[in-house]
Amino acid sequence: MNESTKGPNPAQPGPGSGEAHPLDVAIRLAADDGSGLLGHTSPAYGNMIGPFGGVIASTLLNAALIDAARLGDPVALTVNFAGPIADGQFRVDARAVRTNRSTQHWWIELAQGDAVCATATAVFARRRHTWASTEIGFPDPPHAAQIERAKALPRVEWTRRYEMRFLAGSMPDFSQPERDADHTSALWLRDDPPRALDFVSLAAICDAFFPRIFLRRSKWTPAGTVSLTTYFHVDAQTLAANGSESVFGTARAQHFGRGFFDQTAEVWSADGTLLANSHQIVYYKE
Amino acid sequence: MNESTKGPNPAQPGPGSGEAHPLDVAIRLAADDGSGLLGHTSPAYGNMIGPFGGVIASTLLNAALIDAARLGDPVALTVNFAGPIADGQFRVDARAVRTNRSTQHWWIELAQGDAVCATATAVFARRRHTWASTEIGFPDPPHAAQIERAKALPRVEWTRRYEMRFLAGSMPDFSQPERDADHTSALWLRDDPPRALDFVSLAAICDAFFPRIFLRRSKWTPAGTVSLTTYFHVDAQTLAANGSESVFGTARAQHFGRGFFDQTAEVWSADGTLLANSHQIVYYKE
């Protein structure tokens, strides 16, 4: 996709707001000649091979968010990473398969040529005020500014797009001998450059927790997310209140075995509101 | 669908094995004249209104399992409950959208007339032997036989299809005054009549944990699962080793708010193998 042929896009700042944030560039979708959308991988969010999965999740969610038929805010998003995504252009098809009075269900598919590379389902809803309770405790960590920023990982460009400040469970030093270790992480993180939090950035952040197998075994292992489910617990207005402040994330695994492990993450605003929790199943080798 | 017109179905016991288990009857799918499958809701798994969601999840998984193109065992299943399913016939369309060397991705849809009632994605894989570790502890409960079986719920037929023995968090007595209470459950459960565990029965069991809002508030509240994701941690052979023994399940919530809450469950075999974990987001009112 050529920059000059791109159509207007709600996820892109309007005229006068200055240069677009790299995330908004990465998730940009333009109408193609048919009923689909065209996107393009972004070098700014490159992974070791192909794009960072979080930005693909964000792009697929964006396809529903920018649709004129969209109802309410996202409540659930499941993204399945079906095959490698080559650097370059891709097509996204998003379809509201069912719209109820207050909820809406989406099918979303990302393809390159004839190959389906990712699929997603999303549930949107008009959220109402109800009785509410958070059943897990905010970890109440020291302020982000009190913790040193972690270095980005070499050859993993997307890690430069996040300020990460680890209270626990940063990426191990793979030059050290392999050993059994704690696989949990707790960290402050936000976009770099800072960007006001919204559903697309939160969807990406939910996939920004390194594969737990790296931490658990203190060694690099081929691994990749196969399926990622995120539940959003707040509406757009509550998210917007976070502004560009860091959010606090915790991540851990329950089981590694037979080539797949799961990991679960919670993402909190700085004031202790649970914004989302997210679950994924990850392929690993050996 | 008329009984006499049903085709053969792998999920149905062969001749000589006696009467089919009610679960196998409920999830039965027969080829229709086109490329789709036809199923029928089962009174044996009726909910207060419509069918028990767990059996719908099981039916959708079955559509992929019985497909001749299916590769390996299920690893991840996400089912979205898009709208009410009326008692009667439904159509299921299942399509392998991507088949790799060792993984396969499915789109599955359940419709009545023109209305999509449920959608699902599933990931299947040929599972390999790898390094393995379970990071959470088996609760090591007293043997199922030492715990009294809970009564089925009035007007909720599917609860008669499970032997449930609660160590904690059984259904509260709604005739008692409303009060804040613990929302976690721990129980032994198995099919009634007993049935050898497999992926379809495990998929249904993962949805057999009552909505946490009932327990948390000790009152009946309109509630229904909107999206359900299950990760399977074992292969078919390991599941089969469980036979018809009870499995041990634990369930809890993280957050209730703005009309939706999440709940998470783990399901263990009697010998302490983590078989699956499952996450869902549930609509509730007031």
Task: Offer a quick outline of the entry.
The structure is a homodimer of 286-residue chains. Chain A has helices at 22-26, 53-65, 199-205, 212-217, 236-241, and strands spanning 30-31, 37-40, 73-81, 89-99, 103-112, 115-125, 133-134, 162-168, 185-191, 223-232, 247-257, 260-268, 274-284.
How would you describe what is shown here?
- Two copies of one chain form a homodimer.
- The first copy, chain A, is mainly β.
- In chain A, 13% of the residues lie in helices and 36% in strands.
- Chain A has helices spanning 22-26, 53-65, 199-205, 212-217, 236-241; strands spanning 30-31, 37-40, 73-81, 89-99, 103-112, 115-125, 133-134, 162-168, 185-191, 223-232, 247-257, 260-268, 274-284.
- Chain A has a twelve-stranded antiparallel beta sheet with strand order 1-2-4-5-6-3-10-13-12-11-9-8, covered by helices on one side.
- In chain A, α2 packs antiparallel against α3.
- Chain A is globular and about 55 Å long.
- Chain A starts with 21 loop residues before the first helix and ends with a strand.
- Residues 1-15 of chain A have low confidence and may be disordered.
- The interface between A and B is large, with 61 and 61 residues.
- β11 of chain A pairs antiparallel with β7 (133-134) of chain B, so a sheet runs across the interface.
